[in-house]
Design a protein that fits this description.
single chain; 387 residues; alpha+beta; nine-stranded mixed sheet; 40% helix
Length: 387
Amino acid sequence: MPAPAAAGEALAELISRAAALAAASGGNLLECFAAVPDPRDPRGIRHSLPCVLTLCTAAVLCGNTAIEDVTAWVHRAPQDVLAAAGARRNALGIRAAPHPDTVVRIFADLGAAALADHAGAYLALRALPGPVAYPVAAPGWLPAVAVDGKAVRGAAGEDGMIPYLLAAVTHGTGIVLAERLIGPKTNEVPEFAPLLLALNEYYPLAGHVITADAGHTVRAHAGLICGKLLAHYVFTVKCNTKKLWEELDALDWAEVPVQHESRDNGHGRRERRTIQVMDAPEHIRNRFPHARQVALIERYVTRTVRVKKAKRWVKKQVKSAVAVFIITSLDAREAAPVHLAGYVRGQWTIENKVHRASETLRRFMTLRPRCGYGPRACWAWRQRLSC
């Protein structure tokens, strides 16, 4: 268990950072949480919602990840930490900590969407890179946001359906800027525009690069990003957009040299990635709005695996190759091949830093029964405020 002094320092640092973000949180973290609707009956409330959420945040910053560890840390928090979090005083004038059952009950009843929206706005202002020069004078890195969806394992609604969330995440740091719940009778595509338009209200996307997987390679999305948001897109093209894929595949890639190559070793595999880039031909521009460049990315992977042979295990190398097409609104003056390759790899930030947390949510949550949106609210809070 972390020392009380370390806990106090962690909370003091958190509140200090929050105070600098007045536009996002109203002045500090407590005021940020104060905007989250409290689901409890106001009669008989002994611990305010901002106090409980602030204490839980301090617990996570001190290294606690499981809900049992968080609640135990909160219940035994020292007086100076309780005072900084705004905990109430009892009849003896001592700061009283919330009971573990209170913390669990709050997360079980808390509105996940409200918590996600307010916490996302708070972190978005912290991550905002400032005004982006637009248009740029030479190829260079622009701030990028990845968009993708994921089912929240460990949570279920009243209808028994697992919540499916569409999230917008910063490249590299993996900060969740916004998310949107996908209904049972729809999919990610119709929610793409509302997600970005809502995010643009408090996190201006002008001059940013929006990346998404092949499911979002849609003409309407390209028009929204470049027209209304004044941003750029880097989309993957696969066979779900058959005619566009066929036109890209028919281009003379054999005459285009490899303009950038990267190699990675680790996790039992060697990987080589190459990219070939050309200006988008006129018929591609007519088919897909704002297209300026197209690219072919090829990935060659050699994996070392163990196979059983003659009653013993031996190592064997397995080779594979994958090729995908890329279409982007960035022209050659704004993005070189190395930048396009980086934006494509940056899309994996949402898989590695956000979706992996969703996959391990069951280990984090121990609510019984696992129903309602308690796990989703807990995940939304932990993903954002423990970044």
